[in-house]
Amino acid sequence: MYQKLLNKSLKISVLGLGYVGLPLALALAKRFSVIGFDINHERIRLMQAGVDPAKELLPDDFEGVDILFTAEEADLGKAHFHIVAVPTPIDEHKNPDLGPLLLAAKVLSKVLKKGDFVVLESTVYPGCMEEDFLPVLEKNTGLKAGIDFKYGYSPERINPGDREHRLEKILKVVSGNDAEALAEISAVYAAVIEAGVYEASSVKVAEAAKVIENTQRDLNIAFMNELAIIFDQMGISTREVLAAAGTKWNFLPFRPGLVGGHCIGVDPYYLLHKAVEIGYNPQVITSGRKINDEMPAYIAKRLVQMLIQAGKNPGHCKVLVMGLTFKENVSDIRNSKVADLIAELNEFSLSVDVHDPLASAQDVEKEYGLTLMDQPGENYDAVVLAVAHNAYKSLGLSFFSNLSRSGSILFDLKGIFQPQEAKALGMTYWSL
What we know:
Rossmann fold; 39% helix; 13 strands; 16 helices; 6-stranded parallel sheet; 14% strand; alpha/beta; elongated
């Protein structure tokens, strides 16, 4: 298989061209002939024009590649090595939503042939590929997984907004249903991953490795958030505590903050789901999720308390929230905890303005029913710096002071500025 892919007598398909699938498809297209498939026709139109809808990739990334961008299912039939990289979100009850994954299985069923390879990149719980995804392929095609077609799992490790740790620079975990599948899948990825590949012993091991990567980060941030709450009530600066503790060589450099996005804030629920399914009730993971999910409410309540302490009526106060994306320097607003924070502020009858230079106003309106301001207003009683965009860092603290009333409050959630700077400008400073 690998040699035929390398000489382009066979093609690779990538199903799902989001923040994971598109960089992967373009990287593969430097060595192989690739078919990039997505059900969103507008996204396909942009990619055909050399534009990344997520604004992560540059026009140069689309140059010198052998790729067909398409929304036509029939085009997938020209490929023999299929990679599935669709989203795996959670529903309103925080249960895994396998809808996109199972839809991809149905689409792939229409073109899957004997001798094909199927690799899943989407983040799932251990056992999902073999217990949920493959049965759809088998049922709809009459083919037997592992016999009529080979399969494997290679979890994505994309870090949105990070131009340094690009796909090619990150070690890739690969797995296969047998030795032959592992060898072929490993060879394909090794051809484009400069950092090399790590061969996991089984598909389930690779699935589990991926889901605990982000669960570990979730738990560490939850610990920092709990410390921030404790130290805030004690009148101690969490930033100063962490700086002191960080002088020890083995202290882990995690920081408190809002935990959103489509990785850390979602993946642990996949592991929780599987654990409960097999009869185990996870306590540490559940506790960490609870702390991180409740941080928007804690921050909103703390701001209201400080406004009242300043002699202000929250119902008559204006608040500016700077930043809505799930992390700094990206345009992605999915699962943004800043949106939850705004909802909490609205519950206290605060008048809230929202600004973000990277988010799409249309997407924000559609997803959260919020209106983004082109430019911040003035006379704010409080400013919440929620996302540490470089664009905000470059403005300087005086910019935010000039937008505010005398005696205003600055909630610097990411610790962009120093408390002394805010005090010198007559602002009350607070940070996690």
